[in-house]
Write a structure and sequence with these properties.
By secondary structure, the chain is an alpha/beta fold. It contains 15 helices and 18 strands.
Length: about 475
């Protein structure tokens, strides 16, 4: 009798960035650029274009040339005459010269160096196909959440007018009851190169000089955080200031097992560009597949474009002003109390939620290969993604406020919520609600439970006792 050996456990490939070496890992334009660069440097009298890297380790008159800022797979050493001034570091230039051979390497001795224009590429992958690849193992994630999650990876360029880095931040609450929000974050981390997550620098080895030249990390980074654990202070600081010393664009996604926020002011709800929720119909498919290379390739190419708002700072200020009005109207639509409108998810200040709407619009512009957007484009992005998502969120979280604008989402006891609702629905401007009415309504609860609920509501500042056993709510405004 012959036993069939147990099959080896499937181990997916790891998505790579700096260490890519196979054609399938590169976009067509990257592969073409590498091929043309390699061919050009083979000539006896090369004319070659690339990004210039000057480093003291190479010597005063020497520099490296690489095909693109993130393509360190190939390079060529160059040396210019002492009298020639080098362009600024990381300039895109065209070099003409002669190849000089040494014992075991060669350099290009530069005769002429001129500024050149880097042609901005377009991805071979459409935004629709990118989403298909991104959610290949998931079902039930529909619009607008589908696009908002994808926008995190498309990202938006830095908003220099506000002194902020680019990127889009989301929080993902879990309506599935199965911890899928955190599993989705873990999945996202697994299908993109770890270099994006950890912000690793690239290294160019030059054995001829026995040196290593460091290359800055990729411009975009992705952080996924479990907010049910102790909140990371560095992440909190970033959410507040939107500044990073390592990335020019950084997207942060916060995951939680909770289906709704505990408070309107908790960071996962208040400090992100958009809170969102996974619904019970979302499922993770069991599939043994390698990470789709299209995801990393699309992410890389999308960062090559920098859509702008209008033609001047005045245009940006106008857009931020108009989006502030949209936020105010949105808060009115949901009957949000005035105090809440000045904070959290409805902050109308230009540095609050208006810039969040602008970020979504800029990410959409990147996805549609647009160089410039205007107020009309921002308005469409607001209607189709920001507003639709907020409507879904507030329909799902009906217990955020009572009809009188009293916050109830922070109440942990279910009975407290029902008692507070009863008081706010039955009180008038002159009279409160007596304890005997509370007892009549909650006839299936004993007196001790009801008095404990009222005590907790008083201690949390939700109600006050206007006279013995008569209670009124304390609205936020």
């Amino acid at each position: 009798m012959q036993f069939i050996p147990k099959p080896t456990r499937f181990k997916p490939l790891t998505a790579r960035f700096w260490e890519r070496e196979y054609g399938i890992e590169f976009e067509k334009w990257e592969w073409k650029l590498l091929s043309e660069f390699n061919k050009a440097k083979m000539a006896e009298f090369p004319t070659i274009s690339g990004f210039l890297i000057a480093d003291y380790k190479l010597g005063r008159n020497c520099f490296l040339l690489i095909p693109a800022q993130h393509l360190t797979n190939d390079f060529v050493l160059c040396e210019c005459p002492p009298y020639m001034d080098l362009p600024p570091n990381w300039s895109y230039v065209t070099v003409k010269g002669k190849k000089i051979w040494f014992r075991d390497y060669y350099m290009i001795y530069v005769d002429e160096i001129t500024p050149a224009k880097f042609e901005v590429p377009k991805s071979d992958v459409s935004f629709h196909d990118f989403q298909e690849s991104l959610f290949i193992q998931w079902s039930g994630i529909d619009s607008p959440l589908r696009e908002l999650l994808a926008f995190e990876f498309v990202s938006c360029p830095p908003i220099f007018a506000l002194g902020q880095v680019g990127g889009i931040n989301l929080s993902l609450y879990d309506g599935t009851g199965e911890g899928l929000s955190k599993k989705l974050l873990k999945y996202f981390r697994s299908i993109i190169p770890a270099d994006f997550v950890k912000g690793r620098s690239g290294v160019i080895e030059i054995p001829e000089f026995s040196v290593q030249i460091k290359v800055p990390p990729f411009s975009w980074g992705f952080k996924a955080c479990d907010v049910d654990k102790q909140f990371n202070e560095r992440v909190l600081d970033f959410l507040l200031k939107r500044k990073s010393g390592r990335f020019s664009e950084l997207s942060v996604e916060l995951g939680t097992d909770r289906s709704a926020p505990n408070s309107l002011y908790e960071p996962p709800f208040a400090l992100v560009d958009q809170p969102a929720i996974l619904f019970p119909n979302v499922e993770k498919r069991k599939m043994n597949v390698d990470p789709p290379f299209e995801v990393a390739k699309y992410v890389i190419t999308s960062k090559m474009t920098y859509p702008t708002v209008g033609n001047s700072r005045t245009d940006i200020e106008q857009v931020l002003g108009e989006t502030s009005l949209k936020i105010i109207k949105l808060a009115e639509k949901f009957d949000v109390p005035h105090l809440v409108r000045r904070h959290a998810v409805f902050d109308p200040n230009y540095y609050g939620k208006p810039q969040s709407i602008l970020r979504v619009a800029l990410a959409l512009a990147r996805a549609q290969n647009k160089d410039k957007i205007d107020l009309e484009f921002v308005s469409r992005a607001f209607e189709n993604y920001y507003l639709k998502n907020m409507e879904i969120v507030f329909e799902s979280w009906e217990d955020i406020f009572t009809s009188k604008g009293v916050e109830i989402v922070s109440l942990k006891h279910e009975l407290d919520r029902y008692v507070l609702k009863f008081i706010t629905d039955n009180e008038t401007s002159e009279t409160g609600v007596g304890f005997h009415l509370v007892q009549e309504h909650f006839f299936n609860r004993n007196e001790f439970e009801l008095r404990e609920a009222l005590r907790r509501l008083q201690e949390s500042g939700k109600i006050y006792e206007i006279k013995r056993d008569v209670f009124k709510s304390v609205p936020l405004e």
